[in-house]
Amino acid sequence: QVQLVQSGAEVKKPGASVKVSCKTSGYTLTSNYIHWVRQAPGQGLEWVGIINPSGDSTTNSQKFQGRVTVTRDTSTNTVYMELSSLRSEDTAVYYCGSDHFDYWGQGTLVAVSS
Amino acid sequence: QAVVTQEPSLTVSPGGTVTLTCGSSTGEVTSGHYTHWFQQKPGQAPRALIYDTTNKHFWTPARFSGSLLGGKAALTLSGAQPEDEAEYYCLLYYSVVRVFGGGTKLTVL
């Protein structure tokens, strides 16, 4: 069956970067998209970005103004989302999700605090 | 970036019917927005209910249906159950960018 397993919680200082991983099983990355979504405490869902099946194209929400980089490693079936220049408002649970969002990772809490 | 709007809150009686809507700041929502609908309960990850405007996942209860209605996307719940009390989010596709709505808190009371 399909599983998306994310890396553990992170605590970062403002200005730092964080890299969250999403390891897939039963899900062919070369045939499917992977989305990233985040949810700040008590807030709604926010679409972050996506990587295409070829791995050669990513699209991110304009809100992040180039701070987000989505990459993947097909040898380990893992997708990565790196967010740089962290600020307190980036504190959120970050989720990876499959093409039609039918499968989700368990979420990774990224806390940004000085 | 487009803004996607949803009702902040709605209430439905058990067994009743309610329609949640999803509008776009860019104009009419069409099938080309490939609307997705999600349900989220407190402390849980979101769960997909509807994709591509009308299509259900195999786990989606039959009482949920998706459509286009009056220039918006719509999620209709017919025969509400207590377990349907949750936050509901829509997601619209704008070419390659996707945008979530702010969510609708649905109370079954």
What does this structure look like?
The complex is a heterodimer of chains A (114) and B (109). In chain A, strand 7 (68-73) and strand 8 (78-83) form a beta hairpin. By secondary structure, chain A is an all-beta fold. Chain A has strands at residues 3-6, 10-12, 18-25, 34-39, 45-51, 58-60, 68-73, 78-83, 92-97, 108-112. Chain B has no helices and eleven strands. The termini of chain B are far apart.
Provide the gyration radius of chain A in Å: 13 Å
Helix content of chain B: under 10%
- The end-to-end distance of chain A, rounded to whole angstroms, is 40 Å
**Biggest pleated-sheet summary of chain A:** 6 strands, mixed
Radius of gyration of chain B: 13 Å
Task: Supply the helix-strand structural class of chain B.
Answer: mainly beta
Average pLDDT of chain B: 97
- Average pLDDT confidence of chain A is 94
- Roughly how much helix do the residues of chain A carry, as a percent range? under 10%
Order of helical and strand elements of chain A: EEEEEEEEEE
Q: What series of H and E elements makes up the topology of chain B?
A: EEEEEEEEEEE
> What is the percentage of strand-forming residues of chain A?
over 45%
Regions with little confidence, pLDDT below 50 for 5+ residues of chain A: none
Strand content of chain B: over 45%
Query: What characterizes the major β-sheet of chain B?
Result: 7 strands, mixed
Specify the overall morphology of chain B. globular
Tally the helices of chain A: what do you get? 0
